[in-house]
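Appendix B. One record, verbatim.
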Amino acid sequence: MSVRTIAFNKPYGVLPCFTDPAGRPTLADYVDIPDVYAAGRLDQDSEGLMILTADGALAHRITDPQHKLPKVYLVQVERVPNERAIAQLSHGVVLGGKRTKPATVRLLVEEPSLPERPVPIRFRRHVPTAWLEITIHEGMNRQVRRMTAAVGHPTLRLVRIAIGAVRLGELKPGEWRDLREDDLTPLGRRPRAS
């Protein structure tokens, strides 16, 4: 019997777990597959790609920063970052006394094509916004949000679009798809014997 691993597009406002005593929306509202759990977190106010798996070794490889698996985010921030802010994000910023590892940061020329969010971002008429693509190789708590805030550009919307070679693709919020063996091998899963 094969071990299920899926890619899930977590909607805004959904907790990255299967139960919540307060009754808030969770993964269980969207995924009805026994024995899978989240390989890593994506905060309630963030959106996008999560990998859910029943393979503990694979989950460890995805979440353990020693494997340096790239995670790619589209990030809407307040105001347009200048070259200095981009360089600070790229070289690492100090969060809680620890410098983040170097990141790849790109200011996007055009707004990415994303589904509308059910709760609009806060809008301030005299404060422009910009979109960044940020690739990190670690997973500190709320890292991307804390990084952009540290350089003076608070995050308004955050969407994860890739974990390693697995991309969000055409999945709409709340949808999931099974990952195939060729999706999982680049994440570090050993090919299964037939």
